[in-house]
Amino acid sequence: MSWGWRPWRVVGLVALVLLATWNLTGWPATWFDEGSHLMVPKSVVRYGVYADYDSAGFRYFGATLGVGPTVLLPIAAVFKLFGVGLVQARLVMACYLVLAVVAFHRLARRLAGDGAALIASALLVLAPGVGTLEFGRQVLGEAPGLLFLCLGMAELVIAAGAPRPWRLAGAGALLGLAAVTKYQLLGVVMLGLCLAWLLSWWRRAGSLKAFVIPVLAAGVVFAAWQVCLLGYLGPSSLTENFRYVRQAAGGAAFALSLERALASGRLLLEPGMLLGALVPAIGYGTALALRRDDQSHGWRILMGFTLGALSWFVVASIGWRRYAYPGLALACLPTGALLVELLRVRAREGRPEPVTALRWAGVWWLAAMMVLPLPVVLPRIFVPRPQEARAMAETLNREVSSGATVATWEPEMTFLTDHRYRVPPQALLSVAVAHVWAGGPSPASRYDFMAGGAPDYVLEGPFARGIGLFPEDRLRAAFEPVQSHGPYVLLRRKAGGQ
Question: Does 24 lie in the same domain as 167?
């Protein structure tokens, strides 16, 4: 299905490009996850090694497990051509963001028509709680993962009329690329395909082959990347590298906890999530999936993935809001279709008032979804904000010699400057996650930043402060503040400080 260059689509595309690129390094502020991802393409360009690094050497299987080569290698190519920098990396992400929305719109048009596709795409970009602009403008896997999900689902829908093995395998390969892009999507892909098959089996529609082949193809693509990553891009043998991966992963993204599941479920039910439309939209989309018509197969695929993504978030994830993104993004499509259905309601003879009220409810609901986010989103993009990370990077370049040792755990700063940073081991990240989300022991109980000799400087930022990495008493006893910018504080070792 072509894009169709109608005037409103051209205007929408121009607006999307503007929202994706304006003030690109100013919002959102760069932070821990983005910084760790950025270190990999920087390492590829500087040293030819697919890994993070610090003063002690290369750090394998940390950041490379958070975002895949579909994101990191294009950024590395841009770094090679235009130099290492945040704006270069985020321009790659802006391209992914635009392509993801276009692919989503294409899928929505095929399933629900032009009107619903327009509303759903607008909700995807602007709706409260979804976060497409926030996540898509950063070096994260959300927008690229959504792109491959939508492309794969679209191929599955197209293949419904004549499920040829090669087309089903192609769809599965695209879904496998989504899982390679962001590892958490592997569970979403497999669960989504299983739920789509269950919906088809319930209606006695479709064939098992139409779902088995994509599952196998997605699994092959994901497994092939794991063999490449562990067998050829790691420091040791396949077995040893796998052991390193288990230590580095540490369950940071996966958790089975009733308390956590209830908290995640409450998060999805908050009014800010599509202004209360999430549950009605899921019900409406599921009803469409259970019909018997030409569009129902596509709805079964969509709802299988939507329910799979939301179920994975509630049951198996650690409950970070960003992990809900795939399900919330896909839920924008049935939300758009539901709103269009409300707008199409026609009064029946003898019962005009309730029907008219229902239609007006749809109008006001849609208007609120479109208008209320604007005063929140637009100032973030178009109003300049202090850039503390950049200011601190300039201070480091001015105040700290390149040979000095700086203890920190703020990867965004290790990306922005080229100093000798002493960073905690990757295995400590799971301890930090458990400390914040489950009340576990502080990382400071398992890591001594003074071990091996006191560093020349300590750079304390929002992440290290939030997990208590540098005990306040030891920090103030041996170091003195030099400069601060927002949440970042640079401290220098005192004379005789141990």
Answer: yes
CA separation for the pair 205, 200 (Å, rounded): 5
CB 222 within 8 A of CB 176: yes
Residue type, 115: G
Using one digit for the tens of pLDDT, what is the confidence trace for 346-376? 544 445 556 667 777 777 888 888 888 888 8
Q: Are residues 271 and 402 in the same domain?
A: no
CA distances from 288 to 124, 307, 337 (A): 20, 14, 10
1 in a domain, yes or no? no
Number of domains in the chain: 2
Residue 69 in domain: yes
Map tokens 């990370």 to a residue: 389
Residue 216 in domain: yes
Is there a cis peptide before residue 28, judged by omega within 30 degrees of 0? yes
Q: Which of 333, 355, 380 is the last residue of a domain?
A: 380
Split at pLDDT 50, 70, 90, the class of 173 is very high
What DSSP character marks residue 58? E
Tell me if 58 is assigned to some domain. Answer: yes
Domain boundary (358, 380, 402) is at 380
The answer on 366 and 477 residing in a single domain is no
Q: Whole-angstrom distance between the N-terminal and C-terminal Cα of the chain?
A: 67
The answer to whether 148 and 35 are in contact (CB under 8 A) is: no
Q: Calculate the CA dihedral of residues 173, 175, 181, 186 and round it to 10 degrees.
A: -120
Task: Give the residue from 151, 146, 178 showing the smallest Cα distance to 167.
Answer: 151
pLDDT above 90 (res 205): no
Taking the C-alpha atoms of residue 27 and residue 230, their distance in angstroms, rounded to an integer, is 35
Q: What pLDDT is stored for residue 252 in this prediction?
A: 52
Question: In which domain, by residue range, is 233 found?
Answer: 7-380
CA dist 421 → 302, 401, 460, 476 (Å): 46, 12, 12, 20
Are residues 358 and 424 both part of a single domain?
no
